[in-house]
Amino acid sequence: MEIEDLRTFVEVADAGGVSAAAVRLGVSKSMVSRRLMRLETELGVQLLARSTRGASLTEAGSIFRDHAAKVCAEIDLARETILPAGELRGRLRVAAPLSFGPTHFAVVLAEMARRHPQLQIQTCYSDHFVDLIADGFDCAIRVGYLPDSNLIARRVGPLYGNLVASPDYIRAHGSPETPGELAGHQALMQGTESWQLQDGDDIVTVNPRGRFKADNGAALVAAAVAGLGIAYLPDGVTLAHRKTGALVRVMTQHPPPPAGIYVVRPPGPHPSRKVRVLTEMLIDCFTEPSSADPGAG
User: Fold this and answer.
1) Structural domains for the chain
2) Are 263 and 282 in contact (CB under 8 A)?
3) pLDDT one-digit tens code per residue, 203-251
């Protein structure tokens, strides 16, 4: 019985179909189908009921899935144990934010791939929170303030942000000086999020409103530069515009408290060595003084 056949079956079972599993595994759909047929032939039972909507587990498949997943996990652990010190192999699937990931995290992932030539790294950049378990990710890099969940999170560094607007917006509408004055301004937001601001030793939560919303930081930057309102964004995506004067900080007496950069993973007693190595590399990168810019511009 081939370990790749077992791994493929687990991916199809978790993904709910051959196409989604093929994307996770980085192989063709025909390869996935061949592995499934080979496994079912060897076992002499049907594990999956196929349809145009996907694949669902049969009764036998439901029982076999957990055993197959445990075998795959044990094989992965055994491989890590016998590898030369520091060497990684296999596959690492990472979810990262689109607004911050390509400019700040991609370089770390590229360096990880360079150091470990037998490791396959697949990164999905999206500003939507993916379901790590359902979508088959080993971990995710997330920024900001984490919502409550059953995921295990490790903070790898600070994330500094500011409220920014264009000089044209400020000339037309003025600059708010207190948290209460934000209610009279157009906010550029991802959805219906709240903003946290410092008021001396206290943290004040405000619920801004606005007519322009986007699920991507770069789009919110563009809207702020165009003078559509005030945005609360990480310094990393606004710094270039602040240096040119296209954006300026507002509410400087009530800045947002530092947020965080986190590696989150599915629940379990111990992270895989691949996730541990990525976490350590991110800590090395984002705990350096040069990674923070709390006050420029």
Assistant:
1) 3-82 (1.10.10.10), 90-159+259-291 (3.40.190.10), 161-250 (3.40.190.290)
2) yes
3) 999 999 999 999 888 899 999 999 999 999 999 889 999 999 999 999 9
